[in-house]
């Protein structure tokens, strides 16, 4: 499997989903999984998959002794594997910027030279594909499609790509042609395409011209929360709190949240709105909140990570995700796990599998405002959504998703 | 001799319009006229009118041997008056045949029987007076909303003058017993019970055009055959259906009307009769008592009240609504009372069900809302506005007893003023009498000073005026 992010060092939903799925597949048994990420930190959970860091894969030959390798990368990779990989370098990449071990350094983030990094990742994949023995290649999201294609070309093994998002979602319909090209290339070469929702499946079919028979939806799931997180205690204020959590970007529809808040505040006074996160539209949103005259009740606590996210949820009465286009959207499920009723846009993939949430169109500010008001003023609705939501989300587990992916593998391999 | 007892239910709720929370306190009109017109007209033309005309033909062709009963809710009737008055004419023709019995039910098709007996009685009475004024009919049999029935209800129904009630042949109540008999209510033996045969009723209502059903296609011949082959001592088969089964639930193209029309012919061949509920309870001897501890109904798999009061949302809305029952009954604001009735219609609660699977499919099939949460939100917003209007009429700080006292004073004020007036008049008379007597006594003594007389008179009139003031 080629991935880009892996917990605990994650930047978005991709890492969480890749982790959950891999773990779910492992739980189904009889799987030997290698997960490749650009840059491991050594604190990843390795109990169910072998994790290989692209930053430790040599692409140029260096004569280094074992002790040196051990001291340099022993924390994240077995030196034996390093030597095996070194034996499979397939071309002279000394012209590239490589380090003392002949490896390319990856940031593992989304740097400005992302396209270069994607290309390097694909070079590295060539070495890996020649070294390791495997039956199937699985690429998570467009960043790793070139690597997947390369591995397929080298080995002739089938390629499954996993579409966690498309450029159409990220850009509200105005895709970057380079990114679109990479995605389309991946889809053309793939033997099978897995999408995280029917919404994404439709995008893949409509906008990338892919044969529908080749595309299957496997909805994401969630990992049960640890007791530690569930036990978080937050001081409850008398006022109700409505929370938006996520990147403040065009895709997430933050302006609809502000407008809905303005509508609610015109009629209710005991409610506060929180827009947690950061993004390129943040300044605009601060300005909009001020323009609507609700700045005193509208707060921007900035980017939240790890435990802070759950503390934020615990302190909330309503969670809101008005995404304009959301391939899946894992955060409402997390809110439900914390017992927070959610309002989500119908344009989110997770709306396809959730029943105990309120769904509105992202542009329907009236409906959103009404839903917010309803949850904070009618306790029966709050309790109903909270309790049935907890029960519902407990059923959405990764092993079920993992089994579906395994079934797809078997189909691709002609084993069923 | 066997008989079939048909009952056709006609009900349509006043569906609510999309009512946002910012409309609360501003907009006091709650109903989606366009949607209601659309649905009621469509169903009337696809189903109610052709079905009723089929029934008319069946009665004519069988020369009155075909008999059936109809239950119609007041809220549905009002909508026919608004949107499809021609259907009421057809109903009138059915009533005129004498072969169709009209059965009473709560005017608003409400769940009032579950929480508010007084409201329930008032609503049934409303329906009765509607039937009386429209068709000159006084119902003898009652069918509660969705066939809801329980022990406490029976004595009340008897008291209201009903001889029989229709309810569901719920399996968990009947156990090994058959619904194909007449029973009496355990809590009020005077009341006879007719139980719906749910298998035979649902064969028509839900399975008639189901290709995957092993008995498909269902023909009148086969259907009557099933009824004829029930044990000989089972004398009555109660088929209770929604009238929209014909032409709406089962489309006309499925042949449902022809099926219905052919029933009397095959029944006659097999010597099966048709009876109205009143005739059934008069002719057939009840076999035993039936006790129903917890309310039963015809809805959902569970056949209880969980279709309307099965989750927290529904219970909250229900309790809020009936919390003002007494106050609304006391007021005389006609619009408020009308809204109160329309809001009680059980469909509003039906839409809020969060059941899944087959039951859930049934709930969402009828619901104008996308989700139960939307149904709840909309209803609660409307209810919030309604409660505010009730509050304006009678503030809740005024306790019920205090309110009663105040209302009593107001309602009695006419009578009280009259008695006070009478008292006043008699007092005046007494004073005049007294004056006359006084004068008579004084006159013979001194006749000369006449100038004094007007003075005393003035004084006395002033006195009486003062007294009158005090009284008032």
In brief, what are we looking at here?
The complex is a heterodimer of chains A (416) and B (472). By secondary structure, chain A is α/β, with parallel strands linked by helices. Chain A has 16 helices and 12 strands.
Describe it for me?
The complex is a heterodimer of chains A (416) and B (472). Chain A is α/β, with parallel strands linked by helices and 416 residues long. Helices cover 42% and strands 12% of the residues of chain A. Chain A is built from 16 helices and 12 strands. Chain A has helices at residues 13-27, 66-73, 79-86, 114-131, 145-155, 167-170, 177-189, 198-208, 227-230, 254-267, 282-291, 307-314, 331-337, 365-377, 379-394, 398-412; strands at 34-37, 50-53, 137-140, 159-163, 192-195, 215-217, 240-245, 271-276, 298-302, 318-321, 342-345, 358-360. In chain A, the strands form 3 sheets. Chain A has a 6-stranded parallel sheet, with helices on both faces. In chain A, strands 3-4-5-6 form a 4-stranded parallel sheet, with helices on both faces. The longest helix of chain A is centred in the first third of the chain and has 18 residues, at 114-131. Chain A is elongated, with a radius of gyration of 23 Å. Chain B is α/β, with parallel strands linked by helices. Chain B has helices at residues 33-61, 74-83, 85-97, 117-135, 153-159, 171-174, 198-205, 220-228, 256-269, 277-283, 306-309, 312-322, 325-330, 334-344, 347-350, 357-366, 372-393, 400-442, 452-471; strands at 3-10, 68-72, 100-103, 141-143, 164-168, 182-185, 188-196, 236-242, 246-247, 250-251, 273-275, 288-290. The mean pLDDT of chain B is 90. At the A-B interface, helix 10, helix 14 and helix 15 of A face helix 12 and helix 17 of B.
